[in-house]
């Protein structure tokens, strides 16, 4: 009755195809995170207030679509290619078109903010249709926690390489959008051919999905999920503030406008190299310890860049920050499957709620990121930001220093304080693994009995 370890192992090819499938999310996300704000201000020539509306409403709309997509995924029935894969394959062509027009400068000047708001909301909706099922797919690759963690590390490692590609194309926005569109199509095809979505291994599949509202109530009452989501909500806001304002900071606040591209590349390269280290670290010392060590490391170096805007210091800060960026992107997606396992054990008769976990996690982080983007752009407006100017007044410089230094540190400290309350330690995780294995074997045994009875 017991599944062998060999049956649950994932081949390197499957992990690579799964990682390649995440390329569209990260390429597009890196480009919009680093460059959409300055693109709207300096290329599209939109004033700060309409630009802040575009950024905030777009992010808020994307956040709202996450639970909606999660609802429809929960209602979806199993198909020959799975329950999640049809969502990713079906939305990709439309996603390519919306992303291209997001970086297209229309020939008219009046109403450009409406143009970008419309396509940004459309892009957010379609990227959600891809991101939520892709994230939930982790739970259907294997029931082995180490294999899932390994697949997560595979999916995060190339992300920074794809971020390098998005960064290197930032001066040719429309060409970059077309190239990224091609990446969308190719990577989705590779994932479709190389990844097999497995049915729920914890019990026999039911033809009638579990009611969404009941699943939502159970998930929202689950303490570990709320703690993890709240902690990384604040941490993701800090990362988003740094990402969205870093180009403006290097251009106007410090004398690093000739180096900011290389500094960003250094951060991303450091993150690429450090992913295997954090994967080893979390297996050796635990995920909670890795989160504290990795994310805390970012705070002193961020403040140092603001106080000592020296070129040598900037590159030292870039290397150190890359370590924290890698940890902040790897660990929440590695810890979330543990929360789902804990939920399944606490609610053994509740099935098919994986999409709720992932969709609402993305909802909260997107909504918080949207607020931070909108507020930071409004702060620049109130400080007197001049669109298209070569230099900005001192209040703008001071505001950018706060948005890069003090504000992210405050959010990170808040997130880490909440993370102290996260109850799933390594001992709890190992206990859950043993109980999961027992539940899995019973589920497979029940499925075999049902199948034999039906055949007889």
Automatic annotation (TrEMBL):
<dbReference type="GO" id="GO:0005886">
    <property type="term" value="C:plasma membrane"/>
</dbReference>
<feature type="transmembrane region" description="Helical">
    <location>
        <begin position="114"/>
        <end position="141"/>
    </location>
</feature>
<dbReference type="GO" id="GO:0015293">
    <property type="term" value="F:symporter activity"/>
</dbReference>
<keyword id="KW-0813">Transport</keyword>
<dbReference type="InterPro" id="IPR039672">
    <property type="entry name" value="MFS_2"/>
</dbReference>
<dbReference type="InterPro" id="IPR036259">
    <property type="entry name" value="MFS_trans_sf"/>
</dbReference>
<dbReference type="GO" id="GO:0008643">
    <property type="term" value="P:carbohydrate transport"/>
</dbReference>
<feature type="transmembrane region" description="Helical">
    <location>
        <begin position="84"/>
        <end position="102"/>
    </location>
</feature>
<feature type="transmembrane region" description="Helical">
    <location>
        <begin position="12"/>
        <end position="39"/>
    </location>
</feature>
<feature type="transmembrane region" description="Helical">
    <location>
        <begin position="263"/>
        <end position="283"/>
    </location>
</feature>
<keyword id="KW-0812">Transmembrane</keyword>
<protein>
    <recommendedName>
        <fullName>Major facilitator superfamily domain containing 2B</fullName>
    </recommendedName>
</protein>
<feature type="transmembrane region" description="Helical">
    <location>
        <begin position="289"/>
        <end position="308"/>
    </location>
</feature>
<feature type="transmembrane region" description="Helical">
    <location>
        <begin position="355"/>
        <end position="380"/>
    </location>
</feature>
<feature type="transmembrane region" description="Helical">
    <location>
        <begin position="172"/>
        <end position="195"/>
    </location>
</feature>
<dbReference type="Pfam" id="PF13347">
    <property type="entry name" value="MFS_2"/>
</dbReference>
<dbReference type="GO" id="GO:0046624">
    <property type="term" value="F:sphingolipid transporter activity"/>
</dbReference>
<keyword id="KW-1133">Transmembrane helix</keyword>
<feature type="transmembrane region" description="Helical">
    <location>
        <begin position="51"/>
        <end position="72"/>
    </location>
</feature>
<keyword id="KW-1003">Cell membrane</keyword>
<feature type="transmembrane region" description="Helical">
    <location>
        <begin position="225"/>
        <end position="251"/>
    </location>
</feature>
<keyword id="KW-0472">Membrane</keyword>
<feature type="transmembrane region" description="Helical">
    <location>
        <begin position="400"/>
        <end position="424"/>
    </location>
</feature>
<comment type="similarity">
    <text>Belongs to the major facilitator superfamily.</text>
</comment>
């Amino acid at each position: 009755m017991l599944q062998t370890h060999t049956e649950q192992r994932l081949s390197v090819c499957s992990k690579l195809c799964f990682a390649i499938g995440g390329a569209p999310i990260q390429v597009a996300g890196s480009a919009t995170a680093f460059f959409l704000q300055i693109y709207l201000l300096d290329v599209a020539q939109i004033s700060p207030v309409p630009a802040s509306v575009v950024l905030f409403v777009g992010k808020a709309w994307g956040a709202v679509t996450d639970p909606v997509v999660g609802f429809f995924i929960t209602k979806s029935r199993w198909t020959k290619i799975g329950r999640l894969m049809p969502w990713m394959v079906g939305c990709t062509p439309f996603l390519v078109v919306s992303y291209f027009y997001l970086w297209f400068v229309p020939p008219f000047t009046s109403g450009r903010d409406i143009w970008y708001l419309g396509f940004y909301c459309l892009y957010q909706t379609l990227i959600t249709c891809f991101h939520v099922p892709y994230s939930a797919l982790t739970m259907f690759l294997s029931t082995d926690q180490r294999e899932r963690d390994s697949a997560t590390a595979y999916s995060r490692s190339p992300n920074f390489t794809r971020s390098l590609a998005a960064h290197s194309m930032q001066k040719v926005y429309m060409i970059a959008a077309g190239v990224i569109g091609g990446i969308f199509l190719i990577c989705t095809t590779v994932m479709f051919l190389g990844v097999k979505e497995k049915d729920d291994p914890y019990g026999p599949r039911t033809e009638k999905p579990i009611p969404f509202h009941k699943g939502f109530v159970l998930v929202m009452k689950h303490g570990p999920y709320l703690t993890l989501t709240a902690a990384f909500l604040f941490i993701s806001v800090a990362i988003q503030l740094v990402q969205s304002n870093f180009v403006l900071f290097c251009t106007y606040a410090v004398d690093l406008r000739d180096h900011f591209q290389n500094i960003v590349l250094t951060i991303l390269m450091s993150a690429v190299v450090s992913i295997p280290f954090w994967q080893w670290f979390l297996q050796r010392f635990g995920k909670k310890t890795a989160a504290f060590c990795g994310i805390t490391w970012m705070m002193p170096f961020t403040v140092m860049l603001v106080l000592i805007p020296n070129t040598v210091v900037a590159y030292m800060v870039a290397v150190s920050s890359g370590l924290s960026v890698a940890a902040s992107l790897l660990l929440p997606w590695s810890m979330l499957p543990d929360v789902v396992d804990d939920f399944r054990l606490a609610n053994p008769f509740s099935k098919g709620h994986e999409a709720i976990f992932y969709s609402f996690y993305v909802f909260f982080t997107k909504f918080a990121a949207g607020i931070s983007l909108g507020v930071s752009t409004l702060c620049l407006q109130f400080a007197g930001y001049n669109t298209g100017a070569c230099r900005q007044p001192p209040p703008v410089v001071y505001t950018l220093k706060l948005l890069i230094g003090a504000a992210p540190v405050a959010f990170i400290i808040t997130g880490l304080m909440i993370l102290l309350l996260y109850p799933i330690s390594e001992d709890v995780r190992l206990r859950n693994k043993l109980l999961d294995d027992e539940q899995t074997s019973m589920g497979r045994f029940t499925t075999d009995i049902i199948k034999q009875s039906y055949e007889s």
